[in-house]
From TrEMBL:
It comes from Aquibacillus albus. This is DUF370 domain-containing protein. Pfam families: RemA-like (PF04025). NCBIfam families: MtxRegRemB. InterPro entries: RemA-like (IPR007169).
Length: 94
């Protein structure tokens, strides 16, 4: 399944490693160092907007998102719920 994370970015849900609140990035030197190294390797998708609320870390890239961690969590949970639903469409057609 896919998750729309804002700014025309859609990612595969199984690629998500972590979603971090943007305000927490500056409080950790490890996070800042990771972000610096990934920028150097051109693995950061950053639209350079002031409204960044969260950072989505995937296997290959880091995305800056204007959506909050809670909103992204709800979207990911909704996808998990949908994927667990039984497919009764064949039973209804009969």
């Amino acid at each position: 399944m896919f998750i729309h994370i804002g700014d025309d970015n859609v990612i595969r849900s199984e690629e998500v490693v972590s979603i971090i609140d943007f305000s927490l990035i500056s409080s950790s030197t490890i996070n800042e160092e990771m972000l610096f190294n990934q920028r150097k390797n051109k693995n950061v998708i950053d639209p350079q907007q002031k409204d960044t609320k969260s950072i989505v870390i995937t296997k290959d890239y880091i995305y800056f998102s204007p959506l909050s961690v809670l909103t992204l969590k709800k979207r990911a949970s909704m996808i998990t719920t949908i994927s667990k639903l039984e497919d009764y469409s064949e039973a209804i057609e009969e």
